Amino acid sequence: MIAFAALAIAAWLGVGIYHIATAPESVQDSIWGIPKQIGTPDIGGPFRLVDQTGALRSDSVYRGQYMLIYFGYTNCPDVCAIALIDMSEALELLGEAGNLIRPIFITIDPARDTVEVMKEYAANFHPRLVALTGEEAAIDEVAKACGVFSERTATDQEKVESYLVQHTSRIYLMGVDGRLLTQFPYDTPPEEMAESIRPFL
Ligand code: NI
Questions:
Q1: Is 49 helix (H, G, I), strand (E, B) or coil?
Q2: What's the gap in Å between 43 CA and the centre of ligand 1?
Q3: CA distance 191 to 170
Q4: What residues have CB less than 8 Å from 59, skipping those under 6 apart?
Q5: Ligand 1 centre and the CA of 167: distance in Å?
Q6: Residues 76-127: tens digit of each pLDDT
Q7: Which of 14, 89, 118, 141 has the fewest other C-beta atoms within 10 Å?
Q8: What residues form DSSP beta bridges with 185?
Q9: Distance from the CA of 74 to the center of ligand 1, in angstroms?
């Protein structure tokens, strides 16, 4: 009930309507507060996608590095960009330790988020950000492995190109083995994110 009330308030405020913090029951109560570690749910999986330079990137390239992963889309009207800015700031706050982490943005809207679009968008964020797109099936596979839900929302039938995408908005910290270490709600302040990440490094 508390979680439902929180979502209702979020909808009323117009915040996060298209960003669902679909968390396991154990983290529902952390959506509006300090994120807490939730053990190691089975989140994460292999991927073969294309980065903003057109290079093929598989998850194995990043074994041995930490990954900070966010799923979203470039046409997002609100918090996708904020989440990516917050991720970038958290990495800066970590100083040199932040270099151990590869920030990764994966689109859940590959139909519009081409390599060119991703390149332009990624330039707004952390200089080491890898922005990945790919075949819809490949995107679906990694999204599913990470427990990410997404669905197009038809806002205007006459403007099918301007659709919105309702999607899970969580930031995942993956370990050097590619498995989940912890996750954050999209509205986690960068300072909190950095302090939560630091002990893992
Ligand atoms: Ni978004």
A1: strand
A2: 20
A3: 16
A4: 45, 46, 47, 178
A5: 7
A6: 988 899 999 999 999 999 999 999 999 999 999 999 999 999 999 999 999 9
A7: 14
A8: 170
A9: 8
Structure tokens belonging to residue 172: 């995942």
Please give the model's pTM, rounded to 2 decimal places: 0.81
CA 92–ligand 1 middle distance (angstroms): 22
How many A from CA of 16 to the centre of ligand 1?
8
| pLDDT higher than 90, residue 195 | yes
Q: How far is the CA of 20 from the centre of ligand 1 (A)?
A: 9
Q: 21 pLDDT band (50/70/90 cuts)?
A: low
Continuous segment of H or E residues that includes residue 12: helix 2-13
Distance between Cα 98 and ligand 1 center (Å): 24
- In this prediction, residue 152 carries a pLDDT of 87
